[in-house]
Amino acid sequence: MSFCRLEPRDNGVFVLTLASADEHNYLTDEAITELAEELEKVRNSPEVKGLVTTCEVGTFCAGLDYDHHAESEEQAENLAKRVAKVIRLLLELPVPTVAAVRGDARSVGLALVLAHDHLFVWDQAVLGLPEAQRGRPLPDYVPTLLRDKLSHARLRKLLMLNSQTCTGKELTGTWLSTDGADGNRQVVLDKAIDLLHDLQVGDGANFAKARQMLCAETCAAVGITHAELGSHKAADPSWTLFRTKMDDLVLKEEEEEEEEEEEQEQRSYSTRSCSMGS
């Protein structure tokens, strides 16, 4: 059984389904090669108007298999570098892309999700980065994708440094590209396809360039150098410093909000205790 299959649907929408035999959809050498080939077919098709990436059963994509195909750090690093080509192809596509995540997404499988323009997710799907817990490094494009797509600095920290997971339902409202969560897996796919039917893109090259400008640091991390605004900003230390300061500011605001909530809970508890005592 192959890793994925590509099917044309109505109105130029293509559906790429991850469907490996083990139901984990690990990104092995063979899987990455096949995935890249299918994305190149999408890029070169004159009929394509949009791409939905989804899974058939089980996990959407478990990323790297650290117990078998990526046991050593060298193996994992080589596979992660090859996944960068897949991320690059997604960022270069001249049409809108949607991840219809109907199962769990972990490790660089989560990066695969983030590389899409839009996201519909099964509300029970578990998303996370186990690398910190397993003592494995993350490729550069993972933190940059998190910065580009996740508005909450605190959640980025929990995902990357604590290996904390979140569900699709919890994700809604925190992810810049999350269009919704649903408890029905088929509805997740249907909504993703319907979204592409409603989107209109004029010049594909300009659309891809606009996407790259929004994901400047990620583009640099996967080797895209022609993004006019993106590549020079990503390489500019002042731009990196600016992004870091903005992240620190957001994190500080979130910490202040948490402290305020804790104080309110404490005051509420004290009020209830006084009422019970009287």
Q: Gist?
A:
With 278 residues, the chain is an alpha/beta fold. It has 12 helices and 9 strands. The chain has helices spanning 29-44, 73-92, 108-114, 131-134, 141-149, 153-161, 168-171, 185-198, 204-214, 216-221, 230-235, 237-277; strands spanning 4-8, 13-18, 50-55, 97-101, 105-106, 118-122, 126-128, 166-167, 178-182.
Element order, helices and strands? Answer: EEHEHEEHEEHHHEHEHHHHH
The CATH superfamily appears as 2-enoyl-CoA Hydratase, Chain A, domain 1
The whole-angstrom Rg is: 20 Å
Count of folded domains: 1
* CATH second-level architecture: Alpha-Beta Complex
User: Helix share of residues?
Assistant: 40-55%
Structural class: alpha/beta
Provide the β-strand percentage band.
5-15%
Identify low-pLDDT runs. 227-235
Given the structure, what is the number of helices? 12
Main β sheet profile: 6 strands, mixed
| CATH class annotation | Alpha Beta
Mean pLDDT: 85
Strands, count: 9
Oligomer: single chain
For this structure, the CATH topology is 2-enoyl-CoA Hydratase, Chain A, domain 1
- Which strand order do you get reading across the main beta sheet? 1-2-3-4-6-9
Taking the alpha carbons of the first and last residues, their distance comes to 71 Å
Envelope shape: globular
Pfam families: ECH_1 (PF00378)
Biased composition (Acidic residues): 253-264
Region (Disordered): 251-278
Biased composition (Polar residues): 267-278
